[in-house]
Amino acid sequence: MYRFLIKPILFLLPPETIHRILVTFLRLFFRIPGVYWLFRSFYHVESKLLETGFLGMSFSNPVGLAAGFDKNAEVYGEFHAFGFSFIEIGTVTPLGQSGNVRPRSFRIPKDRGLINRMGFNNHGAEAAARKLSRRRPKGLILGGNLGKNTQTPNEAAVDDYEAVFRTIYEGVDYFVVNVSCPNITDLHKLQDQESLESILGRILEVRKEMVISKPVLLKISPDLNEKQLDETLDIVLKLQLDGIVATNTTITRDGLKTSQKKIEAIGKGGMSGGPITARSLEIVRYINEKTDGKLPIIAVGGIMDVQDALNMFEAGATLIQLYTGFIYEGPGLVRRINRELLKKRRVERQKAN
């Protein structure tokens, strides 16, 4: 129903307009008694075989919603009803900011992709912390995606990351340091060895002050070459970071079906969806092989159907996140992935017995 009826209607309006309407609608609609449980009963696939342990946390299934959808921690409970076991809020910056000039989000349907240059638009860390203090649905895991304010120079970025980390610490279960988004001017420069080690080192030092230690992961770019990947992994392993989120959006525009004229008219931005499926999978597999499967991985980027999800698990990911695939396929994709994974695990259990 989503692909043939709802999506064509939604796609009549610009992506950001639809996103605002959807968030408002969900907040209002789910106030009706019984709506949450109705959606949960339809989309959730319940089974012990889907339960997944990851960095000391227990996930009811391995499918989550990537950062960018619930930037301000407004609708994580509502999205949980669609079958996601975990939601990553943000990217959150210390101060609220409006982001880049609109229009800044574009669909490329021929490639089943999106291009955006949102620019970390969000209400800020204090506002997110207030929203995160609300009661959450039982079993829902929350992640916090950390960023810096656009106006903060890279030399002072480490202070921004620390500020967000401290402010939302009580409200989430794990953290993702985001230095790989292509939509903040010069943010990618924070991926160099010195800057990255400074930011991650500071975050891990602050964590030592906390009563409860929570996992910290790094989100990496699909545009890193092999040498840069190796340097990043060296830092991650040296600092004993908890894991990797692979990958962010790409600035490349290779092999697209969409016309060059349209791509040029859209301009700069990070591309997600179908065009980065192969690269994201390649990086997940590379990290897993390079670290002998010892570095926990959350796979995100280009997971557009059930097979893409299964490929990520086979490549070494423990958890996956959806974003563009959710937009193109709707919430039914979460259920289809979990059903197929459950079927696969039942077969594996039977063979083991």
Number of helices: 13
**Which radius of gyration do the C-alpha atoms yield?**
19 Å
Which range best describes the helical content: under 10%, 10-25%, 25-40%, 40-55%, 55-70% or over 70%? Answer: 40-55%
What is the molecular shape?
globular
Poorly predicted ranges: none
Looking at how many chains there are and whether they match, the oligomeric state comes to single chain
CATH architecture: Alpha-Beta Barrel
Distance between the termini: 39 Å
Q: What is the third-level CATH name, the topology?
A: TIM Barrel
SS class: alpha/beta
Biggest sheet record? 8 strands, parallel, barrel
| Beta-strand proportion | 15-25%
Q: Which strand order does the major sheet show?
A: 3-4-9-10-11-12-14-15
Mean pLDDT rating: 95
The domain count comes to 1
- Structure summary, number of beta strands: 15
- Order of helix and strand elements from N to C terminus: HHHEEEHEEEEEHEHEHEHEHEHEHEHH
The H-level CATH homologous superfamily, spelled out, is Aldolase class I
The CATH class is Alpha Beta
Topology, please?
Blueprint: H1 2-10, H2 15-29, H3 35-43, E1 52-54, E2 57-59, E3 63-65, H4 76-80, E4 86-92, E5 95-97, E6 105-108, E7 113-116, E8 122-124, H5 125-132, E9 141-146, H6 157-168, E10 174-178, H7 193-207, E11 216-220, H8 226-239, E12 243-246, H9 260-266, E13 270-273, H10 277-290, E14 297-300, H11 306-315, E15 319-322, H12 324-329, H13 332-352
Parallel strand pairs: 3-4, 3-15, 4-9, 9-10, 10-11, 11-12, 12-14, 14-15
Antiparallel strand pairs: 1-2, 5-8, 6-7, 7-13
